[in-house]
């Protein structure tokens, strides 16, 4: 990894100014000399040069510095597509198929895939470095496998073996084009990154939720709130990747647009076919620049040229239709495989969210139970207060300033207390029975 970082680091510009050099010191007037200005650096900053990592079909990588407009012309992309790759902006995950390139923005992987190369913004992020290393490894392994298989087939054919070809038909190498291999590595990196984050969230969430069910505290509630915020954000990102893959799978036109190698091959075939017809006409003695007269031009050559053109166009149309349908199936199988992976990650997050919701419901039930117990205690306390108030009423009545014969009886005070206590007990028991009858208190 350290070697790859050193290789991918942009080289130090030769135009950098050494401030310790005497030739760049200020003059006697106090102004810096003109030769100390980094004109090349200013020109690069003015053009908006950016460092890109380029990986070709053979797995070789290099650092190139290209400005925005050159990249637009090179990949035939509009400015809004390049804006998706800008690390200063945060855009949702997107996979766009264009005429000559595929724009991929999947989590940390932001790249442009063409039929001949992959262009990534130069970054020391571990995800980008792992993507470059994995893509180089697969391209190199594929190249070695193709060479080994070609040599083996030639050797056995020289030996006259007839069953060897049938054996290699069952163990054929990966015939996916370059752009699909690069897209596969990007999908795998994004799905693995999201799945690892979901696994880390699961490891942290379940013990915390179990602790919250056993002990409800402000600290645990705050930790669960933060955990749920992270879960919602991660679920939104996973859902976006899943929707993007599903949208591609549902649109055959977008999938056919992403087959860049087939489009490049058709363009080259059409170009060479036109040149062959022009060469045939030149060899036939007909001038290409002179105007063709309907009287002097030979009808056989024109008829042959028209027949060849029609036959070539029909053949190219039939071949492109069949190849596009076949490649749509290949790309659809590739997208379906990673759709299953990202859908599994989404199911994990959904299950975790359901577990959090169940925990919240359990905590709400516990809080409701405590609240009901408090209400029951309040009812009992209110009833007891009412019973005690009866003694206050009796004491207020006997405390009035008037004379009665009951004050002369020595045991009258004792009987008043007994009768008041029995009445209070009867009233309290009546209230408790009413609460139980109305199921306001547990039996």
Automatic annotation (TrEMBL):
It comes from the Eukaryota. Residues 224-251 form a coiled coil. The chain crosses the membrane at residues 379-400, 412-435. Residues 1-35 are annotated as: Disordered. InterPro entries: CorA_TM1_TM2, MRS2-like. The keyword Signal does not apply. Keywords: Coiled coil, Ion transport, Magnesium, Membrane, Transmembrane, Transmembrane helix, Transport. GO terms for molecular function: magnesium ion transmembrane transporter activity. It is a multi-pass membrane protein. It holds the Pfam family MRS2-like. Magnesium transporter that may mediate the influx of magnesium. Belongs to the CorA metal ion transporter (MIT) (TC 1.A.35.5) family. This is Magnesium transporter. It comes from Dillenia turbinata. The lineage of its organism: Eukaryota, Viridiplantae, Streptophyta, Embryophyta, Tracheophyta.
């Amino acid at each position: 990894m350290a070697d790859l970082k050193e290789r991918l680091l942009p080289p130090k510009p030769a135009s950098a100014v050494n401030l310790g050099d005497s030739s760049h010191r200020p003059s006697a007037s106090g102004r810096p000399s003109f030769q100390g200005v980094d004109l090349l650096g200013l020109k690069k900053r003015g053009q908006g040069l950016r460092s890109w990592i380029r990986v070709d079909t053979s797995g070789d990588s290099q650092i190139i510095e290209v400005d925005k407009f050159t990249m637009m012309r090179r990949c035939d992309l509009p400015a809004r597509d390049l804006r998706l790759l800008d690390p200063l902006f945060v855009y949702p995950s997107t996979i766009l198929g264009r005429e000559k390139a595929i724009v991929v923005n999947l989590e940390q992987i932001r790249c442009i895939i063409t039929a001949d190369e992959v262009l990534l913004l130069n970054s020391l992020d571990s995800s980008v470095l792992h993507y470059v290393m994995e893509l180089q490894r697969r391209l190199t392994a594929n190249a070695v496998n193709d060479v080994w298989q070609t040599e083996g087939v030639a050797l056995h054919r020289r030996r006259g073996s007839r069953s060897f070809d049938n054996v290699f038909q069952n163990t054929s190498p990966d015939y996916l084009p370059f752009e699909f291999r690069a897209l596969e590595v990007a999908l795998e990196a994004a799905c693995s990154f999201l799945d690892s984050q979901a696994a880390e969230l699961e490891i942290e969430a379940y013990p915390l939720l179990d602790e919250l069910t056993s002990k409800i505290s402000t600290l645990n509630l705050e930790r669960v709130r933060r955990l749920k915020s992270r879960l919602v954000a991660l679920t939104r990102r996973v859902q976006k990747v899943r929707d993007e893959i599903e949208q591609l799978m549902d649109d055959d036109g977008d999938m056919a647009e992403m087959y860049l190698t087939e489009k490049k091959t058709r363009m080259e075939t059409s170009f060479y076919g036109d040149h062959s017809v022009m060469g045939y006409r030149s060899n036939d003695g007909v001038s290409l620049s002179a105007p063709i007269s309907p009287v002097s031009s030979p009808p056989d050559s024109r008829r042959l040229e028209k027949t060849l053109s029609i036959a070539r166009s029909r053949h190219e149309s039939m071949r492109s239709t069949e190849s596009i349908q076949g490649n749509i199936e290949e790309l659809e199988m590739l997208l379906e495989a990673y759709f299953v992976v990202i859908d599994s990650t989404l199911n994990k997050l959904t299950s975790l969210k359901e577990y959090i919701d169940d925990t919240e419901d359990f905590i709400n039930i516990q809080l409701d139970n405590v609240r009901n117990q408090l209400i029951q205690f309040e009812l009992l306390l209110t009833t007891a207060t009412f019973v005690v108030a009866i003694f206050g009423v009796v004491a207020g009545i006997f405390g009035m300033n008037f004379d009665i014969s009951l004050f002369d009886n020595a045991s009258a005070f004792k009987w008043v207390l007994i009768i008041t206590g029995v009445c209070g007990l009867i009233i309290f028991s009546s209230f408790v029975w009413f609460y139980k009858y109305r199921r306001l208190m547990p039996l």
